[in-house]
Specification:
single chain, Purple Acid Phosphatase, chain A, domain 2, five-stranded mixed β-sheet, about 35% helix, globular
Length: about 230
């Protein structure tokens, strides 16, 4: 994917995890900030009770997405590497995702290369070497950009946002829309101003109570509802 013009704003999101209530709020905020295109670093579904609605909204808004580990697990119904709460949610999601949502996930790739002006970018859920690897800010280094062969590397998976500049370029993680884990319960995303070269971490409030009620109503683990209130 190529963006040849430079006077644009780009939104980066990740780890929506079927929390369509949070996703709607984030997309509204990005609209207000006049973002031109949105990249999503995976885990569209899993954990929360709106898988089909989430995929439909991402598809309708033409958000450029890749698959994450939960997306792949739902397609394969393989929960071997997951904790009991995540495994339970994957099993529930596999039984409730509509056929069109499944087809959408099947068409996605596990990584994506793109270009913004003259800057090469690459997006992975985990890392360029292992899509299930957790890369936190302290481990994000030059070697990742060299491995990806890029100047901008977009990662997800940890649910914790960061922007780290190294000599070769920038490594970013937009954090999580659907289940933040940095102690701030608000949804997280990043906005990149191509003209200034600056990234901004944007936090967005949404109706957490509505999601918590839905989690309990459909019989998903109560811990998934509780953690939303704490951002962890």
């Amino acid at each position: 994917m190529f963006l040849g013009f430079i006077d644009v704003r780009i939104g980066f999101i990740s780890d929506v995890h079927a929390n369509v209530i949070a996703l709607r709020a984030v997309l509204e905020e990005l609209d207000d900030r006049r973002v031109d295109i949105i990249y999503n670093a995976g885990d569209l579904i899993g954990y929360y009770p709106y898988p089909s609605e989430t995929i439909e909204l991402l598809r309708r808004r033409a958000v450029v997405s890749i698959r994450g580990n939960h997306d792949r697990s739902v397609l394969s119904v393989d929960t071997n590497r997951m904790n009991p709460w995540a495994a339970s949610a994957v099993s529930w999601t596999a039984g409730h995702l509509d056929p069109e949502g499944r087809r959408y996930l099947e068409r996605l790739t596990d990584s994506l290369d793109f270009t913004i002006g003259e800057m090469a970018g690459s997006m992975h859920h985990g890392s360029p070497d292992d899509e299930d690897e957790y890369i936190f800010e302290e481990r994000a280094g030059q070697y990742l950009l060299e491995s990806a062969g890029t100047r901008l590397l977009v990662l997800g998976h940890t649910h914790i946002p960061f922007v780290k500049r190294v000599s070769r370029g920038v490594i970013i993680n937009p954090g999580s829309v659907g289940q933040p884990r940095d102690g701030d319960r608000r949804s997280s995303c990043l906005v990149y101003d191509v003209t200034s070269g600056e990234f901004e971490n944007v936090r967005v409030d949404y109706d957490i109570g509505e999601v918590q009620e839905a989690v309990l109503e459909v019989g998903l683990p109560s811990s998934l509802a509780e953690r939303l209130a704490h951002g962890w």
